[in-house]
From TrEMBL:
<dbReference type="Pfam" id="PF03636">
    <property type="entry name" value="Glyco_hydro_65N"/>
</dbReference>
<keyword id="KW-0328">Glycosyltransferase</keyword>
<dbReference type="InterPro" id="IPR017045">
    <property type="entry name" value="Malt_Pase/Glycosyl_Hdrlase"/>
</dbReference>
<feature type="domain" description="Glycoside hydrolase family 65 central catalytic">
    <location>
        <begin position="319"/>
        <end position="697"/>
    </location>
</feature>
<keyword id="KW-0808">Transferase</keyword>
<comment type="similarity">
    <text>Belongs to the glycosyl hydrolase 65 family.</text>
</comment>
<dbReference type="InterPro" id="IPR008928">
    <property type="entry name" value="6-hairpin_glycosidase_sf"/>
</dbReference>
<dbReference type="InterPro" id="IPR005194">
    <property type="entry name" value="Glyco_hydro_65_C"/>
</dbReference>
<dbReference type="InterPro" id="IPR011013">
    <property type="entry name" value="Gal_mutarotase_sf_dom"/>
</dbReference>
<feature type="domain" description="Glycoside hydrolase family 65 C-terminal">
    <location>
        <begin position="707"/>
        <end position="766"/>
    </location>
</feature>
<dbReference type="InterPro" id="IPR005195">
    <property type="entry name" value="Glyco_hydro_65_M"/>
</dbReference>
<protein>
    <submittedName>
        <fullName>Maltose phosphorylase</fullName>
    </submittedName>
</protein>
<feature type="domain" description="Glycoside hydrolase family 65 N-terminal">
    <location>
        <begin position="16"/>
        <end position="254"/>
    </location>
</feature>
<dbReference type="InterPro" id="IPR012341">
    <property type="entry name" value="6hp_glycosidase-like_sf"/>
</dbReference>
<dbReference type="InterPro" id="IPR005196">
    <property type="entry name" value="Glyco_hydro_65_N"/>
</dbReference>
<dbReference type="Pfam" id="PF03633">
    <property type="entry name" value="Glyco_hydro_65C"/>
</dbReference>
<dbReference type="Pfam" id="PF03632">
    <property type="entry name" value="Glyco_hydro_65m"/>
</dbReference>
């Protein structure tokens, strides 16, 4: 496939686009998106093009367009757009000729720069656009435009302001709201979401200068249109003259945690004061402070360094970390990470199991304070989880497959893509029966407690979720007279190409684990922490639940390896027909199987969308032998299409565990290219958040060999041939550890005050300062 993206070998910090093609607008918009966890902005160009997706999102501001639809993150009015007209001719790269084009996202500073020369008739100009969403001041973003006139005298007209004519693919989530001009300079607009009634305060201001502060020659006029407020500027540029335009904008909402209780009018004043200050200091200052915040909060925290000739691998790590921080609402535990982050309308901004199984480990092991917010979100979601359980006739906490505002409960849409045979929309069953999400949530919380040893969180929130989810599972089990065991029927497991299956191995094993965990916790707390235990027992019927867990747990059916050593993915998977998948496996697009079959037909084949049994073997590796892993790998890998971006990283890690390092590295290469790679259409709906968490996991869990197993730290690295050395860090029980791996061995250094224990190759080590181990 053709590609316009280029990764410069010498620079592991930059994503660069060298040609501009309106066929591929979505790629750069998504993979170069900017943000700070509060704001997420697709990197659309200032001038508009057909096919663009102009998105700006504010984390957590969900709205429901219509009663029959699910809630989604609304697309906020645009403040990035600008029209530039030279002698009346609109800047448009599909007209005339452009040269020296580049668009570069500097991951280190979070700044986006686009520059080119444009010639059209008499017009000959050089343009440089810079932009950043401040990582230091979360409400603010800024732009700088330099226009250098390389031709004859030209008049430049600029139209720029706030444009509220934006929708989510046609759904308008906002009322128009008041518009105002203050001090003849500051434009403000105050739309409100139609159903959730969140008031937004949007503010913007421009600074226009010729080369040396010469504002005088500019004529300007304020204009308003429907859902629009903007300035129109006119300026004449003599040959060789340069004009500098800076634009500063901000967003506040009435759900902002630090301003709860304030009226929109209060927020308007706050925004105005802030904008005055940043306008005075200028773009450069803002960009500098933002870059410094990136450095302090992200790049200097447990940096990962790979010694290799493949700069792309190092770039991939930076790319993943950059986006993980752009998309994560670290400022507010009432919000979580969307499956497409804040980079597109895909999945409506909703949170899935992607958080616990794929993104959360990065934060748990390197930014525990952010991880704590993410797990607290699930605690706050208990109300929604109770609602879902009750609606389905169960007890305890059943977490929603898709989640938005914590109390909302289930937000999965009911209808999806077209069925090619019936021509009707396909029903999305995951909101009804993809139930492993409940044990995934518990898994994330348990891992957080084990890795951080955050007892306060455990007591105040974590243990309650563990108990409440076990109560759900106990009520969910179904007794089979025929088999004399408890079963879990009619579910979707992680592999979404198999619907309405019975006894999905992943679901049954993780439900069993969840109940077993609650049993041990109950016993331990009751014995050792009676007072604290009593507090929890006041909230939940723990004694009754314990009786039930105990009677049920031993009779839960746990699919076991058959004679060939294969764990059946569900009751019927192994009896289904096998087809040749080579064509689909080799296709650069995912989901091409559906160009020939519908889901009903795929349901009857031994083909998996994503890791299912193999994910179980990775997450609970203590429960299975190496031999079982190998046999199941050989069986399931060829049947897995990796049509979900959640799949490749798991397979890469398992391959590394099995000693198949070359194969693992090949899967690593495929996985890092899900967004960064040459497929120019794959990121249109937004980047793949889970695959970015997967990049960190492949590096630290896969090649760094780190695992948290039954509460213990294990470090067993194995590097791919292409890597001479790998250096990374993790926080274990609040002690910062640095791990340096080479092909010959590894060193673990404890930069904390307290000694910690870890296991490597079946030996237990007590790490005080430093331990070196050779292979
Ligand atoms: C995958 C799910 C995932 C969801 C959101 C689906 O395509 O099959 O496992 O949670 O995407 O990323």
């Amino acid at each position: 496939m053709e590609t316009a993206m280029q990764y410069l070998k010498e620079d592991p910090w930059k994503i660069t686009e060298k040609t501009f093609d309106t066929k591929w607008l979505g790629k750069a918009e998504a993979i170069m998106c900017l943000g700070n966890g509060y704001l997420g902005m697709r990197s659309v160009t200032e001038e508009k093009y057909v096919g663009e997706t102009r998105n700006l999102f504010v984390a957590g501001t969900f709205n429901k367009f219509d009663e029959n639809e699910v809630t989604e993150l609304p697309n906020v009015p645009d403040m990035i757009g600008m029209e530039l007209l030279f002698d009346g001719e609109r800047l448009d790269l599909s007209k005339g000729k452009y040269s020296n084009y580049s668009r570069v996202l500097n991951l280190r500073t979070g700044e986006l720069t686009r520059s080119f020369q444009w010639k059209h008739g008499q017009i000959n100009v050089e343009l440089t656009f810079k932009r950043c969403v401040s990582f230091a001041q979360k409400h603010v973003f800024a732009q700088q435009v330099l226009v250098e006139n390389l031709g004859k005298e030209v008049t430049l007209e600029i139209i720029s302001g706030i444009d509220g004519q934006k929708t989510n693919s046609g759904s308008q989530h906002f009322t128009e709201g008041d518009k105002s001009l203050t001090e003849n300079r500051f434009l403000q607009m105050m739309p409100k979401t139609t159903q959730s009634k969140i008031a937004f305060v949007l503010s913007t201001v421009h600074n226009l200068e010729k080369t040396e502060d010469c504002y005088d020659g500019t004529k300007k006029r304020i204009e308003m249109g429907r859902r629009k407020i903007y300035n129109r500027y006119w300026q004449t540029l003599a040959p060789n003259e340069t004009l500098k335009l800076e634009k500063f904008s901000s967003v506040y909402t009435t759900i902002d945690k630090e301003h709860l209780g304030k009226t929109p009018q209060d927020l308007k004043k706050i925004a105005l004061e802030e904008l005055k200050e940043i306008r005075k200091n200028g773009y450069q200052e803002l960009a500098k402070a933002s870059a410094a915040a990136w450095d302090k909060e992200v790049w200097s925290v447990f940096p990962i360094k790979i010694k290799t000739e493949n700069t792309l691998d190092q770039l991939a790590i930076h790319f993943a970390k950059y986006h993980l921080h752009v998309m994560t609402p670290a400022h507010d535990e009432r919000m979580n990470i969307g499956a497409k982050g804040l980079s597109g309308e895909g999945y409506k901004g909703h949170t899935f199991w992607d958080t616990e199984i794929f993104m959360l480990p990065y934060f748990t092991f390197t930014h525990p304070e952010i991880a704590k917010k993410l797990v607290t979100y699930r605690y706050l979601g208990l109300a929604g989880a109770h609602k879902k359980a009750t609606e389905n006739g169960y007890q305890g906490a059943q977490f929603p497959w898709e989640a938005a505002w914590p109390e909302d409960g289930e937000t999965t849409p009911v209808w999806g893509a077209a069925d090619i045979l019936t021509g009707l929309p396909t029903k999305i069953w995951s909101g009804f029966i993809e139930q492993h999400i409940t044990s995934d949530v518990t898994y994330g919380i348990k891992q957080f407690i084990d890795v951080t040893n955050d007892q306060q969180f455990a007591w105040e929130k974590g243990y309650e979720v563990i108990f409440d989810t076990a109560i759900f599972w106990a009520s969910r089990l179904e007794w089979s007279e025929e088999n004399q065991r408890f079963e879990i029927l009619d579910v979707v497991g992680p592999d979404e190409y198999k619907e309405h299956v019975d006894n999905n191995a992943f679901t049954n094993h993780t439900a069993h684990w969840n109940i077993q965990l609650a049993i041990s916790l109950y016993e331990e707390l009751k014995k050792n922490q009676p007072e604290q235990f009593a507090k929890l027992a006041e909230k939940l019927p723990l004694n009754e639940a314990y009786q039930e867990w105990q009677t049920k747990v031993a009779a839960i059916y746990l699919p076991q390896p058959n004679e060939a050593g294969i764990i059946p993915q569900d009751d019927t998977y192994l009896t289904k027909k096998e087809i040749d998948l080579t064509k689909y496996k080799n296709d650069s697009q995912v989901g091409t199987l559906f160009h020939e079959y519908n889901l009903e037909q795929v349901n009857e084949m031994q083909v998996s969308k994503q890791a299912d049994v193999l994910l179980l073997l990775f997450l609970f590796e203590n429960l299975f032998s190496k031999e079982e892993k190998r046999l199941n790998w050989d069986y399931y890998e060829p049947k897995t299409l990796h049509d979900s971006s959640l799949s490749l990283s798991t397979h890469a890690i398992l391959a590394a565990d099995l000693g198949e390092i070359a194969l693992s590295y090949d899967l690593f290469q495929q996985a890092i290219n899900i967004d960064m790679g040459e497929n120019m259409l794959s990121s249109n709906e937004g980047i793949h958040a889970a695959s970015l968490g997967g990049i960190w996991q492949m590096t630290v869990f896969g090649y760094g060999g780190v695992r948290c197993l039954d509460g213990q730290l294990r470090i067993e690295p194995h590097l791919p041939k292409a890597w001479e050395a790998l250096e990374f860090g993790i926080m274990w029980h609040q002690q910062p550890l640095k791990i340096e791996v080479t092909q010959e061995g590894f060193t673990v250094t404890n930069h904390g005050e307290q000694a910690i224990e870890f296991i490597a190759f079946d030996k237990v080590y007590l790490l005080e300062e430093q331990i070196k181990i050779t292979f």
